[in-house]
Design brief:
By secondary structure, this protein is an all-alpha fold. It has 6 helices and no strands. It is globular. The two termini are about 20 Å apart.
Length: about 150
């Protein structure tokens, strides 16, 4: 998936460390428990961290649908709740621990989608050319479109 310079500039302003990892990308585990850090003292997660946690959950769900031969469209139905676009409100998965409501600021949705797209971009590295990779690319493109529409 080609990255346009406008999107890279937006990401670089929020996460300057991104320029240190291009073009190789960080090596992170595919699935990890994103809640171990907040289990003892639940507080609102920063929007990019919440987006990254949602992306991990989405990647796990897509992987399960692929593994068990289910319809991937079911995961994208959940994505509409977990990763909202502009008039919708965020609905966390019901099995997540309670997380206090985030305090939205003007760029909250952009930061959320940047965290989501960044985490999925890391996951996509091992799945290029597969059905899983296509699903991840589709979700990333959805977030990029939301970011671009919010910036105009």
């Amino acid at each position: 998936m080609p990255i346009n310079s406008k999107l890279l500039a937006i990401i670089g302003r929020r996460f300057p460390a991104i320029f240190d990892i291009i073009p190789h990308g960080p090596q992170v585990r595919f699935l990890q428990n994103n809640f171990s850090e907040v289990a003892l003292n639940p507080q609102p997660l920063p929007p990019h961290e919440l987006g990254a946690a949602i992306a991990s959950e989405f990647a796990h769900t897509i992987w399960l649908t692929e593994r068990f031969g289910l319809d991937r469209g079911l995961a994208f139905d959940d994505l509409d709740d977990w990763c909202p676009t502009v008039p919708k409100k965020l609905k966390l998965p019901p099995w997540w621990p309670p997380i206090p409501e985030p305090e939205p600021h003007p760029d909250w949705l952009i930061d959320f989608h940047l965290g989501f797209a960044a985490r999925l971009a890391v996951v996509t590295v091992g799945f290029e050319g597969t059905r899983l990779g296509e699903s991840f690319d589709k979700a990333i493109e959805r977030s990029v479109a939301t970011i671009e529409s919010a910036n105009t």
